[in-house]
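Predict the assembly for these two chains.
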Amino acid sequence: SQQGEEDPQALSIQEGENATMNCSYKTSINNLQWYRQNSGRGLVHLILIRSNEREKHSGRLRVTLDTSKKSSSLLITASRAADTASYFCATAGGTSYGKLTFGQGTILTVHP
Amino acid sequence: NAGVTQTPKFQVLKTGQSMTLQCAQDMNHEYMSWYRQDPGMGLRLIHYSVGAGITDQGEVPNGYNVSRSTTEDFPLRLLSAAPSQTSVYFCASSPLGANVLTFGAGSRLTVL
């Protein structure tokens, strides 16, 4: 069964607006990551937040983690048409390698 | 630096046929894994390996076989293809001690 569930399943916004995607998970984690997938391509790692962190920034990306609610959110500020992609959260349990469990993803469409 | 290379990119099989999806990485990553991606299901882990000679099952291993004779290569074998194995397959790798995955571009398999 999937560890992570994401919402919304699809999000459509205008360029310049902010996009927020949410991820919930079921079991305890070491870290949570967000990946991006452009149509027909492989996934690309965006950002990792550890279980003892609450917020992390990388460029226009802001990730929050609430371990008490077992949830995370990804905020993309000032979105661009090039941000159009699917975004997946992935959780890592107790291993020191990349055995990740992925959510179902959010399809983001940014209209120019 | 090629990263993770998957071949073939596209393949059509008939039910009952066998084939091997190839995956090679040139980053000296110890961990390698295979995921399948189906609409609405996100990515599900099939098999993984933490080093040459060591493999283990993921969430959906039935119908698939793997081996790891070298650090670089991690082929996925379908012994008797079924229509339920129609999917996009991704190979991904990471160093031990790091959870972040590097993905290949994917292999789209159709079983008729």
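The mean pLDDT of chain B is 95. Chain B touches chain A at residues 4, 30-31, 33, 35, 40-45, 48, 50, 58-59, 90, 92-106 (CB under 8 Å).
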